[in-house]
Amino acid sequence: MAALHPPYASPDAIPLPNIDSLTDSDAVDKIDAEIARFEDHIRSLRQLRNSVVPVSHFPAEILSKVFLHYHEQDEMDTKRTLTISWVSRQWRSVVLEQPALWSVICVSLPYDEEIVSPSAIEYVQQCLIRSRNAPLAITYSGPRSVVLNMCSSQLHRICKLHISHYFTADEQLPFIEEWQHPAPLLVDL
To answer: Is residue 185 situated within a structural domain?
Structure first.
């Protein structure tokens, strides 16, 4: 393999790995390992930077109250909760410990798709798990699917339920039978 020359390497740059005697495949592996090492270092630097910004010194209880207030004011769905959880490890930890932040589940699927994407199923499963026993507000539009079946098993926790779906005559009775469980918290249908 040919040695790298400027502009790819400069005297003040971090030295590049020596790959002269390696096969192409081994060179790629060595470079990938070096990239991973630098990505880990960059991740550590970002964590260090996040640790010195003022908001990182807020106690978890304060952050939790802020997130819950924002959630209640805007009734944000859990997709926006996910975005908050990506800010820092501390924020993620706080968000994961707040069941109410995972209790508003909004799913909109194309009516013409027969199969629900695994990501939609995983999203609903995670919301149901992370919301623990918190009352649920569910908005669903799309074809009858496993997502609706998952939600029907939580009817005892649902306080708001909005379903936009066109049922064929063959689908109506099974759907109604699946949803015939007590719903003590249901106030909005």
So the answer is: no
Can you tell me the mean pLDDT for 29-57? 89
C-alpha span between 189 and 185 (Å, rounded): 11
Here the tokens at position 17 are 């790995």
Total number of domains in the chain: 2
Does 164 lie in the same domain as 82?
yes
43 and 121 share one domain? no
Nearest to 137 by CA among 81, 61, 178, 55: 81
For residues 12 and 86, state if they share a domain: no
Is 71 in the same domain as 157?
yes
Instruction: Give the mean pLDDT of 124-130.
Output: 91
For the stretch 50-92, pLDDT in tens is: 888 888 888 988 998 888 887 776 655 666 777 888 888 888 8
Say how far apart CA 164 and CA 140 lie, in whole Å. 6
Those residues whose C-beta lies under 8 Å from the C-beta of residue 161, and which sit 6 or more positions away, are: 137, 138, 151, 186, 188, 189
